[in-house]
Amino acid sequence: MSEIIDKLEGEKPSALSALEMITSQIELEDWKQTYLGKNSQVMRAFGSLGSLTKEERPVVGKAVNEVKKALEFAFTEKQNQVQQAELEQQLTSQKLDVTLPGKPVDHGRIHPLNQVLRRIYRIFGDMGFQIYRSPEVETDDFNFTYLNMPPYHPARDMWDTLYTKKEGVLLRTHTSPGQIRVMRERCPEEIRAILPGATMRYEQLTARSEIEFIQVEVLVVGKGVTFAEMKGTLLDFARRTFGEDARTRLRASHFPFTEPSAEMDVECFVCGGKGCSVCKYTGWVEILGCGMVHPVVLQYGGYDPQVYSGFAAGMGIDRSTLMRYRIDDIRHFRNNDIRFLEQF
Ligand SMILES: [Zn+2]
Questions:
Q1: What is the Å distance from ligand 1's center to 34 Cα?
Q2: Would 310 disulfide with which of 46, 127, 293, 299, CB 3.0-4.6 Å?
């Protein structure tokens, strides 16, 4: 019995001095394997306890356990030392300067189209308008029929429409279907709303035309709303957008969903009316289409045209943004080239 204890006690100093010499994690692992592993003296001593007498067993067991604990304690101490030393070594060799400023994070920018949109929201917001969203995928009824263009009406050909495979479902060609949705939601209340959003047309992709573009629809419905109020509202909008002195003009036009209809031009904001390539040497730039909401449209929206009237306007954002910033290709807006976007 003392044989086992002697053997262990005899090995302890050499184990401890071997531990003392260690400087790395790898050496530590080796040491642990040798002195505390499955085939170590200590573990084998535990295994041989079974061959001892009942009286010997607890005495030897206790002694072996003490040696094991002593070795484990020394090991843990040494492990901490080694880790600390390695950390310090790492810190000095890598020379981390915590006072150095960090790498700047690039700030994103607001897309030019969204900048323009936000300006429009602010202007109409100041005038008491609410912003409405309506679906980009519409039914034939909302896109055409309810806007006074029944099936086979030739006016439908004014838009090169993208149809889906589902009968009667299409990508909206203008934001005007939103007029019907707002009216049906709000009827019989008065309405002052703008409806911004993407619209899609089957166009050839060129520097001047894209299949997707953003429109903002303006809708006012109430009792006794007049053409003069439309003109005043749109003039105010133009002045807040292009400057206090901006001159505008209304030209008679035709849309199936307004009567009478007009188009609004603003004096060319590039040349000031003298004539340039942007205004095609006319001095004027078209900014929106507008008119009094057609009685049929009011009816489809749920309003009695004998009691209510209203005006609507629609403007495309892409073209005017193009002109405003003198951008040479409309496709820049949607191809996500950071070199283009960084300029705004
Ligand atoms: Zn011009």
A1: 90
A2: 293
- Distance (angstroms) between ligand 1 centre and the Cα of 12 equals 97
322 Cα to the center of ligand 1, angstroms: 13
pLDDT tens profile 102-142: 888 888 889 999 999 999 999 999 999 999 999 999 999 99
| pTM of the complete model | 0.69
Residue 176 corresponds to which tokens in the numbers above? 């005007």
Contacting residues for 235 by C-beta, under 8 A, at least 6 apart = 248
Q: Report residue 177's pLDDT band, with 50, 70 and 90 as the boundaries.
A: very high
Strand partners, 221: 191, 310
